[in-house]
Amino acid sequence: MRRGSYGFDAPWALAGLFFGAVAQLALVAVSFAFDVPAAGIAFLLGALYTLASAGSYLYTTRRGKFVVWGEELGRIEGDEQVLDLGCGRGMVLLLAAQRLRGGRATGIDLWSGKDQSGNAESVTKANAKAEGVSDRVDLVTGDMRELPFEDGQFDVIVSSLAIHNIPTAEGRDQAVKEAHRVLRPGGLMLIADFRHTPCYEDVLRELGVVDVRRRDLGWRFWYGGPWFKSEMLEARKPGPNGVESRLADSEVRSAESPDGGERLSGAAVPEVGRVHQEAAPLKDVGDGA
Question: Taking the model in full, what pTM does it have?
Answer without folding.
Answer: 0.81
